[in-house]
């Protein structure tokens, strides 16, 4: 039973790390990357769909994304969706849509760094909540006399080690993201 709880907790913590990576993908660095447009939704035949389902997104050079719609009629809708996507991007429309990335100012870099730290802190909170849930489940097993106090203490230590490992991984990924943001 305890092993099942640990496996479940580890899987949930891994999902928190994956969510952190998705959050970090939204934090813009100086380089163009197709995942920057992942959150952009485009109206398509009456419903909003992700941009990557109506267009190919590529990198033209280190500071420019290129978006090639599957249908020419989608150009204006995609242009509008990128402008309204709260990313601070102004696409240039021709046959394909070019999205130049503005140079990051020092203030913008600091704001992006704050955003990255916020994403990392949210991931740490999620990991700690998972730990709390698992420890609560283990205490319930102890109350029902399905495990001994020694088993409970040992499991608590193992869950804490697991939590510490994931928190350290978050810190490592945050440090890498901050270093990437501060590169000029």
Automatic annotation (TrEMBL):
One of its GO terms (molecular function) is ribosomal large subunit binding. It holds the Pfam family RRF. It is found in: Cytoplasm. Its main location: cytoplasm. Keywords: Cytoplasm, Protein biosynthesis. Residues 21-182 form the Ribosome recycling factor domain. Transmembrane segments: none annotated. One of its GO terms (biological process) is cytoplasmic translational termination. Gene3D superfamilies: 3.30.1360.40, Ribosome-recycling factor. GO terms for cellular component: cytosol. PANTHER family: MITOCHONDRIAL RIBOSOME RECYCLING FACTOR PSEUDO 1, RIBOSOME RECYCLING FACTOR. Responsible for the release of ribosomes from messenger RNA at the termination of protein biosynthesis. May increase the efficiency of translation by recycling ribosomes from one round of translation to another. Belongs to the RRF family. This is Ribosome-recycling factor. The lineage of its organism: Bacteria, Pseudomonadati, Pseudomonadota, Gammaproteobacteria, Moraxellales. The gene is frr.
